[in-house]
Amino acid sequence: MSTTWLHGNALTLLENGTEFFPALQAAIDGAHDEILLETYIFAHDEIGQTIAAALTRAAARGVTVRLLVDGFGSREFVAEHLVSLSEAGVNVLIYRREVGALPLRRRRLRRLHRKLAVIDGRVAFVGGINIISDYEAPSLDAPRHDYAVRVEGPLLGPIHASVRHVWELVAWASFRRRLRLPTSPPIAPQPCGDVEAAFLIRDNIRHRRDIEDAYLLGIASARREVILANAYFLPGRRFRHALLDASRRGVMITLLVQGLADHPLQQRATRALYGQLLAGGLRIVEYHRSYLHAKVAVIDGRWATVGSSNIDPFSLLLAREANIMVRDTGFAERLRECLRRAIRDGGQEISAASWQRGPRLQRLLNWASYGLVRLMIGIAGYGNHH
Fold first, then answer.
1. Per-residue pLDDT in tens (0 to 9) along the chain, 386 residues
2. 194 is catalytic
3. Do the beta carbons of residue 191 and residue 153 sit within 8 Å?
4. Which of 21, 77, 134, 309 could lock 42 by a disulfide, CB 3.0 to 4.6 Å apart?
5. How many helices (H) and strands (E) does the chain have?
6. Catalytic choice (160, 210, 295, 328)
7. Taking the CB of residue 145, how many other CB atoms lie within 10 A of it?
8. Would you list the domain boundaries of the chain?
9. Per the residue annotation, which of 45, 120, 213, 262 is the catalytic one?
10. 197-385 matches 10-193 in CATH topology
């Protein structure tokens, strides 16, 4: 893997939808030429309707608006938004539209899980936040916990090129000739800050392991501390060994994972690994204030990543993902403080002793869930790669 680090960027960390959605809407409302938006989920709720209205206003001003949503994650979008947005002048494409009910077909498991937006080639957003309300569960008074980054500067070049590339692939595969992109030179934004960052993707051709390898390099270089927050944490052997090796070197490693589970099977599979990780000296904290949806990490207060990629087989072996890697103490410390606050206000730490005293039946269910997830990946044809 070769990571291209670009200097001169201005990055703004956005915590939760409460910061992200107003920033995204303001950028859309300020657009003059072009909006490119990719998302896994585009819901028909208050947030989805707000962003859809902003896209409609932009199209009415003469802005070229291109929206790409995933066919599985945005299943309801086709029924609720597609016709009205298309009629309003928004160019819409569906990535792998759902056409059957077989859940383990390899094609069906390859999803567009990225969350990207580029406006006028001058500002971009990269992260893990879907177009859906933070308050999915009425019983919770805290928002879903997640992050995105507002980007200005040279990093816009590869982000813009990647979004255009995927749009072209889907337009070609969908036989939507009129939605093909006009040829244009790559954008080259001027430096406007002092942050060094890289844009990494995961696909099924040339960039299969780029995001995972960047994590592994970061963990291997850690000297003091790793804080890793991940919604669906089910790492393979290489990743687990990297964390355990770092712990043996004296690195303090904290894993922030879901306490409230929106996918109980995956949570139980994650818990099957607790014994090994706790025995290796890792600190595990479950987040219970709301649903944890973050996919971020901070290493030694100087290296950070924010993006869409979970540390699980679905993200690392199947889906299209996109992350930003950052080498900047100011940005890393800001993310670190956000994570420390989340741990303090919503975390419940799992101790090795209490975990060993837990009910044996629960541990058996955890391992059964782990085996089932591995079986699903194996049926899909990816078991050997994990």
1. 668 999 999 999 999 999 999 999 999 999 999 999 999 999 999 999 999 999 999 999 999 999 999 999 998 888 888 899 999 999 999 998 876 555 545 556 689 999 999 999 999 999 999 999 998 666 677 899 999 999 999 999 999 999 999 999 999 887 777 788 887 878 889 999 999 999 999 998 889 999 999 999 999 999 999 999 999 999 999 999 999 999 999 999 999 999 998 888 999 999 999 999 999 999 999 999 999 999 999 999 999 999 999 999 888 888 999 999 999 999 999 999 999 999 999 999 999 998 888 888 888 898 898 888 888 776 655 554 44
2. no
3. yes
4. 77
5. 14, 15
6. 295
7. 23
8. 10-193, 197-385
9. 120
10. yes
Asked if 295 is an active-site residue, the reply is yes
Catalytic residue (choose from 45, 213, 262, 300): 300
113 as an active site residue: the answer is yes
Report d(CA 165, CA 190) in Å as an integer: 22
Per-residue DSSP letter, 317 = I
Contact (Cβ atoms closer than 8 angstroms) between residue 105 and residue 93: no
User: pTM higher than 0.85, yes or no?
Assistant: yes
> Is residue 57 exposed (0-12), middle (13-18) or buried (19+ Cβ within 10 Å)?
middle
For residue 326, which of 345, 348, 304 has the smallest C-alpha distance? 304
Does the active-site annotation cover 115? yes
Query: Is CATH 3.30.870.10 the right assignment for the domain spanning 10-193?
Result: yes
d(CA 230, CA 284): 11
Q: Catalytic residue, from 115, 134, 145, 312: name it.
A: 115
Annotated active-site residue 145? The verdict is no
Paired strand residues for 70? 95
Among the listed residues 134, 293, 312, 328, the single catalytic one is: 293
CATH number belonging to the domain at 197-385, selected among 3.90.1150.10, 3.30.870.10, 3.40.50.1450, 2.110.10.10:
3.30.870.10
